[in-house]
Amino acid sequence: MDNQLTTELKERYGIVFHDVNLLEQAFTHSSYVNEHRYLKLSDNERLEFLGDAVLELLVSQYLYKQFPEMPEGKLTKMRAAIVREDSLSKFAKECHFDQYILLGKGEENSGGRTRPALLCDLFEAFLGALFLDQKVDAVKKFIAEVIFPKIDAGAFSHEMDHKTHLQEVLQRQGDVTIEYRLVNEEGPAHDRIFFVEVYVNDKMIGTGFGKSKKLAEQDAAEKALKQNPE
């Protein structure tokens, strides 16, 4: 494990991992594992899955307590803005996590170290590793330093999650089924563009594209909203 990472975590956040293998796994991308099979390493995807759930719970709890008068719909919008890909990738950069992720040569050469989707996954994987190593209070303490001050400063008060907004607008018309369908992918693996269509009751109402499926879905929802104003 990179000694600079462990030193920075200790000096900036007071975090010292008991199981350094968890920390190493959190910073190991699948491309690195694939290029170093003889090392029998594990990538960070399972930790990302866990960290995503822990983050959503803690952010939900914080918003619930911090904004006692805010209705459920607005709480949902704010939470979505906080935990979405571009927000988490910015947190990862602010923590200097991008400097320590282990990438395969192909991923490195194609700019993976600055790719928002990769950094978002890395941030969630770190939270998952920290949760396993030191339980939920340690994760809460960390995001209380990294995320909560930005919430208090109003950084997300005016953010809009287009998928949530579209769902709210359409559900005012009654029960509807909203579905996002991935219809195409273009470009090399390191610079893929995803194309998505959004359907309501099997009727297409918008199309979008982006460098990840999540961003493509947001783009499709935003364009659908322009066709279906409140």
Automatic annotation (TrEMBL):
Gene3D superfamilies: 3.30.160.20, Ribonuclease III domain. Its EC number is 3.1.26.3. It holds the Pfam family dsrm. One of its GO terms (cellular component) is cytoplasm. InterPro entries: dsRBD_dom, RNase_III, RNase_III_dom, RNase_III_sf. Homodimer. This is Ribonuclease 3. The lineage of its organism: Bacteria, Bacillati, Bacillota, Bacilli, Lactobacillales.
